[in-house]
Amino acid sequence: MAGKPEMDPVWEDMDRTMGQLFMMGFDGTTVTPQIETLIKRHHLGCILLTAKNLKSAEDTTKLCYDLQKIAHDAGHPVPLAIGIDQENGGVNSLFDEIYIRQYPSNMGVAATGSTDLAFEVAKATAQEISACGINWIFGPCLDVLTNARNQPLGVRTAGDDPQEVSAYGVAFMKGYKEAGVATLGKHFPSYGNLEFLGSTLDVPIITESLEQLSLSALIPFRNAIRQGLDSMMVGGCAMSSAGLNAMHACLSEQVVDGLLRSDLKFDGVVVSECLEMDALSHNIGVGGGTVMAVNAGCDVVLLCRSFSVQQEALRGLKTGVETGTITRKRIYESLRRVLEMKAKCTSWEQALNPPGIQFLERLQPSHTALSTKAYNNSITVVRDKNRLLPLTNILDNEEELLLLTPLVKPLAASAASRALSESVTEKSPEPGAWERTASVMSGERVFRELGRSLARQRNGRVLHTSYTANGVRPVHENLINRAGAIIVLTADANRNLYQHGFTKHVSMICNMQYTTGGEKREKPLIVVAVSSPYDFAMDSSIGTYICTYDFTETALNSLVKVLHGELTPKGTLPGTISKSQKLQHSKQHWLVESFNEERDANALDSLIKAVMEGTPVNQRSELSSATSNSFILHHPEVEESHFVVRNSSTQALYGFCSTYFFKSTGTGVIGALFVDPQRRKLSIGHSLHNRAIRTLLQKDGIKRFQLGSRLPSMFLGIPTGHSSERKRLRSWFANLGWNAALSRPVCNMVARNLLSWEVPKGMAKSLASAGMEFDLVYGWDYAGQVLDLIKTSNRQGLAEVYKLALSEPTACGIIRAMRPEDGALVGTVVLYYNHSRLSEFIPPLKDINEAAGGISSPVISPSVGEYSTLLQGLILLGMKQVKQHGCNACLLDYMDGDGNFDGFSAMGFEVLHNFEEVSCDAATWTMIPPA
């Protein structure tokens, strides 16, 4: 007590002092005689409230006030510390649909990638519970999931990366503190790698050595302590390793006074695990356990709800003091810590005047917006191999969507849980009724609204049924065969293995589907993990995999938006689960220099040749007709910056990256990125990419980034012509922060043997029925109308292509489509030949290796209903012109890869190159690896 202010004389009453060292709970939503006795007669200083105590925000405010008023009237010198678990996600003690907002779980917030958002969510959470009179939050959860797959903590912690868990834990802690509540770190020394032996009387064990714990699990606890954590919960688990043995951590002087106090320098309040836990009470007894906990260094002993056990604990502590087993000095050390914590988070003025409902009403609009933002940013699309998202990609209106959901108990933090528990209480108040009913009924309740939400978003039907440990039944098979696409939900499939087996079985059925013609056709399957993301994170056989991190109503609302394309998913898998899917970056950081045309042109031609020679014979290099000149636009409205990694001694180039900033659309483009095949996997590509992104980020007016360029058009995006190369490239760019799951297919197409080609029968008649007038114009005299039309499209490079064409009236033209009734321009394409300047930037035209012309950059007015017919008309006229020009081939460059292929193939076109154009909002770019 040296250096500490003197205690108030009131604390000389040892019974009053010892009461401050207990935290107790009770059953009931109002004050019970038992809790009133504990406060009045035994001077209880701390109370734990759980979901069973809390009906609504209004009732909670009254309950907290009533408890504080009893303490005040009984002469307590300081208010009660009233604590709850309010971790969000599925672990909320206080739930109120009107006044208490729902936020993502710890791991869900980590998936947003924003510690700032974590701070705001924590602050909002603490403001809400504080408004009801609660002054102590049992958080943050600082456990590191050392063994992530089989741990019951799941999404309650940020993940398996100690630094990431630490960053989010500290952000949560600071948010709670900002709102004025006391914080409690848990579960020291970590529940992230417990070994379970089976029986409830067997204590889960930590077998990691102190050295192993220090390198991983203890990092978040150490950092939170340094940042001012108020209290710490020490678990009841056993510890068994060299130099560290304890039957129960919270009863071990070696763990509490040694590891936590001495080694980590923690001088806040230490709270024990609940001593009512079966293993502890049976092995030691509550009275003896209380003495051991206090002697180990615990300041507050937790006893959840049994009144007789709570009395036994009180008697045990009193006996321990009377017999000298516990010193008075030890008691007063704990009292001092408890009083210091209470002084930070409460006073009688605050305790007896909680802000209540009126304050919550003022918070509601901003907190609702925060909740929506947090959930929208957390939803994670881990994979979408076949571009099944959004559902409109794969489902016609007449097709049915099948939703398959497991039967699980609703999360405590959900309306379904509240509705279920209330209905059970009304029907069957005896103990255990809720659990029995929930295991049978609740899956339907939890996910029924999801099915309804999906149905509201589409014209077609949504079929919904549940699945159980009985596996795939005939009813499931019939529905799968009938549906156009299937969504399977899993909730902790790693611990509920029937879900894993069911999902794999459904996947197999979907892979074995056949068309009526006997051709194999994989049926679209989307798997959604609504709790732990570890269910299928590393199983690439599940091609489309989404994680929501909890299945509260708010999370599922955001899921529906992602499934229907209303929301672009931004979440990323937290921790090493994401990193393990990434390439291991080399430590080398190459010097990246600006491309110097005079110095580097010949070396770039040599590099292009090396890339072509290093391309396997069964793959086609998009660079086959490119030269160094192909990348240099010299266009007044395009800012270009190109970069090289080179050997300054030999002048050889090891890698090249071209970037363009299209000022008209605010789009920054990486137009090409390639590395000498002999020097790959040395981080040359990473270094070039980082420099390119940093340069584009500095452009005034930058709105979005894009992989792939229309002008110049060597690479329209990520090349996807060969499946293994496509997979490698998509993975490489995804590791750099590009969401390849949100790509747009584009391609080049070619029609050959044009000199013998004729307009397909019926197509001319169809074109005539469209009622449009077509013509071919040249030069700037026609620029006004044309440039006004292309403003209706925001795709990069359009204006630049058209301006180049308009400036070359002898080598390029514009084919126009107009409405005869009003003369309005409704469609255009660019027509060009291989002697035009435009063709220099379109190497595929040279790849054709014969006399050829090209059709580029179609624009159709949004007001036109017959898009396909009008587009075909423009292209047909272009083909006629190319044929009349004496060319035997026609290139269609930069066409939508999901466009009307049947129509184009009927006209004589075939795909030449396939690409995936990837774009993202520049404002949300957050994943640039360090340069």
From TrEMBL:
Residues 638-707 form the N-acetyltransferase domain. GO terms for molecular function: acyltransferase activity, transferring groups other than amino-acyl groups; hydrolase activity, hydrolyzing O-glycosyl compounds. Residues 15-340 form the Glycoside hydrolase family 3 N-terminal domain. This is Glycoside hydrolase family 3 protein. Gene3D superfamilies: Glycoside hydrolase family 3 C-terminal domain, Glycoside hydrolase, family 3, N-terminal domain. One of its GO terms (biological process) is carbohydrate metabolic process. Keywords: Glycoprotein, Glycosidase, Hydrolase. PANTHER family: BETA-HEXOSAMINIDASE-RELATED (PTHR30480), PUTATIVE (AFU_ORTHOLOGUE AFUA_8G04060)-RELATED (PTHR30480:SF8). Belongs to the glycosyl hydrolase 3 family. InterPro entries: Acyl_CoA_acyltransferase (IPR016181), GH (IPR017853), Glyco_hydro_3_C_sf (IPR036881), Glyco_hydro_3_N (IPR001764), Glyco_hydro_3_N_sf (IPR036962), GNAT_dom (IPR000182), NagZ_Beta-hexosaminidase (IPR050226). It comes from the Eukaryota.
